[in-house]
Amino acid sequence: MKSSHMTPKALPSEQGPGEAREGLKGQEARLRKILLKYALLLGGCLLYLQAVLLTGLSLPCYFHLLTGLLCPGCGITRMLTALLQGDLATAWQANGAVLAALPLLLALIIYDEAQYVRARPAHVPDWLLWLLLAYFGVFGVVRNLV
User: Fold this and answer.
1) Strand, helix or coil at 13?
2) Long-range contacts: 41-50, Cβ < 8 Å, 24+?
3) For 5-125, where are the alpha helices, taking DSSP H only?
4) How far apart are CA 83 and CA 53, in angstroms?
5) Are 78 and 98 in contact (CB under 8 A)?
6) Which of 2-11, 15-24, 36-45, 52-61 has the lowest mean pLDDT?
7) pLDDT per residue as tens digits for the range 93-146
8) Do 110 and 35 form a contact (C-beta atoms < 8 A)?
9) In 69, 72, 124, 134, which residue has its Cα 20 to 30 A from 27's Cα atom?
């Protein structure tokens, strides 16, 4: 009978020079792709926030329009424009939950992208995702009761 298991990939120290170069080229390509993605995203966000600051007009929250209630994301544009102006107090008033979670959310994004560059699967624990969902859900309820 033939063996059905696959041979594991060689460790970087066991790879030949050609294999290591190919791995680096792939990492560089993935890194360029990420940098382009975030440059475009940041540029678009800055243009949008500048337009909001100049005109006072922003995209409406359809949940709020339909229900009259604030969703967990209501106020993110005001929060970001306040942060852009260095006004932490106004940013906190606009959406304190997202502002408080921002360091964790940014860390998760950086972790996920670093794993992508290394061609490894990112594994965020399910309990953390459920915790974030509960956190924003509770915030969405409480902000409408207060």
Assistant:
1) helix
2) 45/80, 46/84, 49/77, 49/80, 49/81, 49/84
3) 17-55, 62-67, 76-84, 88-117
4) 12
5) no
6) 2-11
7) 999 999 999 999 999 999 999 999 999 998 999 999 999 999 999 999 999 998
8) no
9) 124
